[in-house]
């Protein structure tokens, strides 16, 4: 009998219970033992739920689960940071295998929890933490055994991709698109992590650490979001026959790496432009395998639960990847040195526009002027982003009043 | 010490030797034993080769390898059908694990070799047989544990995709594009299997059998190639703002399935249209995970060798998928009942054109006439393909003189 302790019975937790119920016979035959979710940690036992669940199994006391020696595996789908981290650590210390979908915890504590699991000869798996239903963590861990990974790129946040898709396809302003996605459940009430790029950054931190075999921290990844994009940007981007995506990018070369999260303007011919709505896409390049791309639903009850259950099967079948990916490759971060071409739009008063135009000409920033009517918008030569940051400083432009995206066309 | 017997030292075999050499230290640390390719089966020991290799290891006698009890794993990368099949069977019978890249053998003998491996408690793995470097066999085997797969679609043959890409992008006729791809090594001297769809059919046979948990034979898959496509088709397809791809498709619904290999006309907005050159893409839909897409290089020395080595690591780490996928779901083939919209172009003499036009109007086949100058080309209503086959019969049109593609726009 395999006893599971489930922490959390929200969207994903409910999906896990549902799939396990539906496929019980098949899975029990596959792993050659009975499966039982013995206890579930919830905030409120009496809350009305989507599914029928034996109330005896619900508890508000984490220790009832962690200290239950009959429980073999903990599945953590709570969300949040400090509590889940503590629970996971305690569970590993008690000799339980742990699966989590919690990207915040994984991003913050990947190395510590991996090492702890290793020391306890248990598993710490987190397929659902990146790319929703896309199998990406495991394939990446497998590919790094045979490849030097040179590059990772991805649309890793469903919410921001949904917003950008709506803005482009339905000519909506940012606020309208955000409200639509909140109404449809694609964005949370507080969308900061999604639209400011922090969620993408966490996922890129996880992927790039596995890929490059060195600890790439969240702080090592420069981060720009989409919260200041407006309808005139969309108009300008369309006039360039392009579209815009929030991309995570990490490139390594000769022991140096560049890692960023930023809006990127891509051609309508780019495969990224075909990743619509809340879908995700991860691409990486290995020296032997070449480029691989993985596409799928970036979030949602069943895709995420599916990823959690693939970890569960790997643990029970003993087929998870054990390779210790951390080799301390000691890569140098060269974000400061990176030079790209950018699109910039600034809202300023009429008389400042001319001053800005003079500045970007004098400082060899501008490549093409796109518009100088409602706002000033231009593309740049190949420059370091610092040059744009300096411009923002000098003209004291508020973060709400400009939008920068890298050009990849 | 892990002793490998390598059957074949062509393009892929050489790649395997090269990667194993280059990553020897890492891999030996990973699998915690020394790795040695102890013997290699070749046709000609004295042939000049790309790589330096100890001639002592080369043999022309398969029994020197199969009957060597020190050899644990056989990697078969010979190509061909009967000999490799016999070697693989003998190797499994002798209690060796087997890895193959040979799609012909896998397509013909998947069930028998899988069952034999199971009976011998050994592994029979074939990641490289579909999709070149793309990890697709293993992820699919994993996903079927948690999902009912409803649909598989893919660009599975690099050669035909390369030819179609060249015809579209460089306005080449079929023969020119074929010759270019032969010159560049993308097509073999005898390209029949690639351009007539048989290679795609083998791969779809393998994927759909795993996905649907029932034996889908090559003969169960209707098969149309691209060998009769010509420049006027390309012109017509472009005028529809579309492109054309050779797709394998298998759809299951309510214990009935449709499986085909055929040219499909897709919109330029379709993600299939972004799969250029010799690349492959596999998409499948599971009831929980939703749609997943996998993209990568469909062939080539290092991508294919990479896939073979991922199987090798799985065997040595004991992490391969053991799920016995065959459940004899007893699906019914309904290819005959399938109705689609098609594009058809026919080259006939001037006076026959009017007769064909009358026929396709009278029989409610035609939707739109595309051209009636150099040839007669039209799109159809939703019909069964039989109606087109009947037309071909009645007007006794030679297979060289017409081209049919399904419309997916």
UniProtKB/TrEMBL annotation, chains A, B:
Show the Gene3D superfamilies listed in the entry: 3.30.70.260, Dihydrodipicolinate Reductase, domain 2, NAD(P)-binding Rossmann-like Domain
Q: Which UniProt keywords apply?
A: Amino-acid biosynthesis, Methionine biosynthesis, Oxidoreductase, Threonine biosynthesis
What the entry lists under InterPro entries is as follows:
Asp/hSer_DH_NAD-bd (IPR005106), HDH (IPR016204), HDH_cat (IPR001342), NAD(P)-bd_dom_sf (IPR036291)
List residues of the Homoserine dehydrogenase catalytic domain: 135-313
Looking at the record, the residues that make up the Aspartate/homoserine dehydrogenase NAD-binding domain are: 8-127
Any one GO molecular-function label of the UniProt entry: homoserine dehydrogenase activity
| Database matches in Pfam families | Homoserine_dh, NAD_binding_3
Q: In which pathway does it act?
A: Amino-acid biosynthesis; L-threonine biosynthesis; L-threonine from L-aspartate: step 3/5; Amino-acid biosynthesis; L-methionine biosynthesis via de novo pathway; L-homoserine from L-aspartate: step 3/3
> Could you say which enzyme class this protein belongs to?
oxidoreductase
Its EC number(s):
1.1.1.3
SUPFAM superfamilies in UniProt? Glyceraldehyde-3-phosphate dehydrogenase-like, C-terminal domain, NAD(P)-binding Rossmann-fold domains
Record carries keyword Oxidoreductase:
yes
Q: Is Repressor among the key words of this record? A: no
Task: List the PANTHER family.
Answer: HOMOSERINE DEHYDROGENASE
Instruction: Please give the family membership noted in the entry.
Output: Belongs to the homoserine dehydrogenase family.
Q: What is this protein called?
A: Homoserine dehydrogenase
């Amino acid at each position: 009998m395999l006893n599971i302790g489930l922490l959390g019975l929200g969207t994903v937790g409910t999906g896990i219970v549902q799939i396990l119920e539906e496929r019980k016979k098949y899975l029990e035959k596959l792993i050659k033992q009975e499966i039982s979710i013995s206890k579930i940690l919830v905030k409120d036992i009496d809350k009305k739920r989507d599914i029928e669940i034996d109330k005896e199994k619900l508890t508000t006391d984490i220790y009832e689960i962690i200290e239950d020696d009959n429980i073999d595996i903990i599945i953590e789908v709570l969300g949040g940071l400090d509590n889940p981290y503590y629970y996971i650590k305690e569970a590993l210390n008690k000799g339980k295998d742990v699966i989590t979908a919690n990207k915040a915890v994984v991003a913050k504590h990947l190395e510590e929890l991996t090492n702890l699991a290793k020391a306890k000869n248990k598993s710490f798996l987190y397929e659902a933490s990146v790319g929703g239903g896309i199998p990406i963590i495991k394939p990446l861990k497998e590919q790094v055994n045979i490849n030097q990974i040179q590059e990772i790129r991805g649309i890793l946040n469903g919410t921001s991709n949904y917003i950008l898709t709506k803005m482009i396809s339905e000519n909506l302003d940012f606020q309208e698109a955000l409200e639509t996605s909140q109404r449809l459940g694609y964005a949370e009430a507080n969308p900061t992590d999604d639209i400011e790029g922090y969620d993408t950054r966490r996922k890129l931190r996880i992927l790039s650490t596995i890929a490059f075999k060195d600890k790439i921290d969240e702080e090592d990844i420069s981060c720009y979001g989409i919260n200041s994009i407006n309808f005139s940007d969309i108009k300008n981007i369309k006039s360039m026959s392009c579209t815009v995506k929030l991309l995570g990018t990490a490139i390594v070369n000769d022991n140096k790496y560049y890692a960023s999260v930023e809006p990127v303007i891509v051609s309508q011919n780019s495969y990224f432009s075909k990743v619509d709505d809340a879908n995700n896409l991860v691409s990486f390049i290995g020296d032997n395998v070449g480029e691989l791309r993985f596409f799928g639903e970036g979030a949602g009850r069943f895709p995420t639960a599916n990823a959690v259950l693939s970890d569960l099967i790997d643990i029970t079948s003993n087929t998870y990847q054990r390779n210790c990916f951390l080799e301390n490759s000691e890569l140098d971060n060269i974000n400061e040195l990176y030079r790209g071409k950018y699109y910039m739009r600034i809202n300023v008063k009429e008389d400042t526009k001319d001053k800005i135009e003079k500045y970007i000409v004098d400082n060899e920033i501008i490549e093409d002027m796109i518009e100088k009517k409602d706002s000033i918008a231009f593309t740049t030569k190949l420059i370091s982003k610092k040059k744009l940051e300096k411009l923002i400083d000098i003209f004291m432009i508020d973060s709400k009043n400009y939008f920068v995206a890298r050009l990849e066309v």
